[in-house]
Amino acid sequence: MTYKLKLTYIVLFVLLPVLYLISSFIVRYLLQGGEFSLFFSDNFGILGIYYVLVSIIFMIATNIKNVSLKDM
């Protein structure tokens, strides 16, 4: 994997989801005073859908056909 591809992977799969969780936690739980169980289930459901879609788009965009741990 090239440096640019690794950076894109880190941004899409680590930084954006963490940023989403933090911002959503601040808005929904702290500012609006909602229940933590609703916050937890809603946000992790959204992140699950996000990971599936981003994984598909990432594979198509980078033309990854055979992935092996040796390349990483």
From TrEMBL:
This is ABC transporter permease. The chain crosses the membrane at residues 7-31, 43-64. Keywords: Membrane, Transmembrane, Transmembrane helix.
